[in-house]
Amino acid sequence: MAGFDFGQIGGIIGDYMDSDEIDIYRVIKIELPDGSISVSDPNVPLYTGIKCHLDPNETPNPDPVTAGTMPIIVSLKINCAISVDLQNADLVKARKLDTGGAVLAEYEGTIGVPIVIQSRQEAIMVARQAV
After folding, report:
1. What domains does the chain contain, in order, with CATH numbers?
2. pLDDT tens-digit series, residues 28-37
3. What is the pLDDT at residue 131?
4. Residue 62 Ramachandran class (φ > 0 left, ψ -120 to 50 alpha, else beta)
């Protein structure tokens, strides 16, 4: 028996599940008016306010160098529409939002290779947060 093709309802799923946001930073080559090539400013986001669903998984990680510290390793799964231009090694700033749009948590890190699962794409980002 074949599995259900969620591609038919992917947009509807996104409308209900995508309550968080990401900004995507990437250095790209830009052709200047004089014909020379430059690179974009890495501090300026390429895309902002992209709707997505964030699924954080926090793991305490003892630091053997500094006694008594316990940095948190956050593995953040980013689920978004396949039309979002996510690429391997993009710097992503993510915001977990409540139902009113207030920021509950912020994350920053570099994503791995995004994969497409039926009508959605998924990328994993690992961020280290000091406690």
Report:
1. 6-129 (2.40.10.370)
2. 998 989 999 9
3. 43
4. beta
